[in-house]
Amino acid sequence: MIFGTTELATALTILAPSLMMPPRSEREPTMKPVTSCRKRRGIFFWLQSSTKRAPLSAADKAQLIQDVSDDILGYGPIDRYLKDDEVSEVMVNGPRNIYIERGGKIQRVDAAFLNNEHVRRIIDRIIAPLGRHIDETSPRVDARLPDGSRVNVIIEPLSLVGPVITIRKFSRKRLGLQDMVNIGSLSDESVDFLRRCIMAQLNVLI
Q: Looking at residues 101-120, what average pLDDT do you find?
């Protein structure tokens, strides 16, 4: 089940203040950092008590917990696709249009951001650890994530559809020739031709 903006916005509004640590200067000496595990427990217990007033099925409840967890601890609606090894590219064209590339084919997914501000918050979460900054005076960022994935971000005024994110993931598995045939990047004839060129020790210009 994909939850609407009202449910997710309400959950985030209530959860975010209680799950974030105060500034370091305002912490008590005995306060400990709030770990991801503790945050997830907080999300779970809050949703458990809240859903007593508006019952949800077990599947819907699990999905809501996952959606809120991804937004607070990860990269929001695109977090699940960034963790999916079968997805090679994630594209966000404004808050309502999210596409992925899986198996060499681009497809639109049901996931969506709440609004432009929601996308901008996730953008900041992606690029801030990389030491990069984006705003209206510098509306484009190209960066590389620690895992090697390439990130391109464009916001207004360069983008006319809202914030745009493109993340090209690096496969953890090195593709072989047969893999490239399976996804349609090469034909059997091309593979045979390349193999003969290599066996003949010919020079190949790419």
A: 91
